Amino acid sequence: MKLLVIGSGGREHALAWKLIQSPRVLKVFVAPGNAGTTQERGIENLSITAIPDLIKFAKTEDIALTIVGPEAPLADGIVDAFHMANLKIFGPTRQAAQLEVSKDFSKAFMQRHHIPTAAYSGFSDPIKAHHYVEEKGAPIVIKANGLAAGKGVIVAMTPSIAHAAIDSMLVEKNLGDAGMHIIIEEFLQGVEVSFIVMADGRHVLPLATSQDHKRLLDGDQGPNTGGMGAYSPASFISPELHARIMQEIIYPVINGMAQEGTSYTGFLYAGLIITPDNKIKVLEFNCRMGDPETQPIMLRLRSDLSVLIEQALNGTLDKAKAEWDCRAALGIVIAAHGYPEAPRKNDVIRGLTDLNLEQENTKDFHVFHSGTALGGKNGKEIITSGGRVLCITALGDSIKIAQRNAYRLADRIDFNGCQMRRDIGYHSINPYLK
């Protein structure tokens, strides 16, 4: 069968890479994909991105099922449109995707269903928002209500940073419609964890645990980013904590959506924080796989992803079982010069050719592309085209060994102004440095 993956990032590269490994899958199309997906056997990029064009393509090519990677198509109602066209697609409907699209919706939903999260208030008036910060003090968190491509969350460690964030969103309107309404919530101390599941509307299949690193610099310093690296499994999630996350967070979400008449099918990402007193609170929901968490998770997955997705679409995830490589996986993001504020494009990436040759002989690592394109002098060089450029992902018998393997490979990649953290995985390797 032929499959279609929507998106252009590292998450979509990893999903397509895993899907094409299935003996059931003849070809995977990625719309629009990146320079990395063009190099994979059995994967082909599409230049189309408009929903009507994608529907026409899926019908013409007899696409068995479509998998949605990023949030924007979900917000635009791609799942609803495919359903109307009687096409199989894995992802939540536009209404269900409000869990990510609207912070206000998400917070109110959690309150209705008693799902623990940070205390908050919503504002459209900058004066009232400034007064609230003056009353609460810092640290405090400012969030754009809508989708802001990873730029909508400011962890303000001082009141001046919080006030600047309010003005940027509500007065200067630097985030456009996404920042016309904001959420200001309490700052929570603790360890962050990414918990990702597949849902079929009633049943849930948890994927391997993971943790990403949001801050740009070592030691979780610097500005927030879309993620500078991730690893799996998150060793501090004990079986007991795993069960609590399912009971206190995941099942209430799926059951709550069903109770409100909005069945949830698709990947669900819960960004959580485990507080020092061992409480679990939700930082955010994403209606998709995380990036860069997808990369190490897919490297560890031994089951046929296409089968798991079909089971989800058939409502039989209660009969599904995911098998995992017992080794750990760790991914290091290499980012462009100027990321996250103003990433530079068109820098030629060096060192990929030798790694690509090595990839053909081993399943112990993979270079997943995010912000890459073909260009340069002859139009065939791989160049930077976005903020997060590559995710070098490797397996190892422990997090420490996976880390060593991944950095050994990442150090062979170079382009002008490239930047990466040197401590991905330190929460598990050196827990006392948290």
TrEMBL record:
* Origin superkingdom: Bacteria
Annotated ATP-grasp domain ranges read 107-314
Return the InterPro entries for the record: ATP-grasp, ATP_grasp_subdomain_1, PreATP-grasp_dom_sf, PRibGlycinamid_synth_ATP-grasp, PRibGlycinamide_synth, PRibGlycinamide_synth_C-dom, PRibGlycinamide_synth_C_sf, PRibGlycinamide_synth_N
- Record's catalysed reaction(s): 5-phospho-beta-D-ribosylamine + glycine + ATP = N(1)-(5-phospho-beta-D-ribosyl)glycinamide + ADP + phosphate + H(+)
Cofactor(s) the protein needs: Mn(2+); Mg(2+)
Q: Name one GO molecular function term.
A: metal ion binding
Q: Which pathway is recorded for this entry?
A: Purine metabolism; IMP biosynthesis via de novo pathway; N(1)-(5-phospho-D-ribosyl)glycinamide from 5-phospho-alpha-D-ribose 1-diphosphate: step 2/2
Q: What is its EC number?
A: 6.3.4.13
Instruction: Set out the biological process GO terms recorded for this chain's protein.
Output: 'de novo' IMP biosynthetic process; purine nucleobase biosynthetic process
Keyword annotations for this protein, in alphabetical order, are:
ATP-binding, Ligase, Magnesium, Manganese, Metal-binding, Nucleotide-binding, Purine biosynthesis
Broadest EC class? ligase
**Which family, according to UniProt?**
Belongs to the GARS family.
PANTHER family xref list: PHOSPHORIBOSYLAMINE--GLYCINE LIGASE, PHOSPHORIBOSYLAMINE--GLYCINE LIGASE, CHLOROPLASTIC
Q: What is this protein called?
A: Phosphoribosylamine--glycine ligase
The species this protein belongs to is Nitrosomonas cryotolerans ATCC 49181
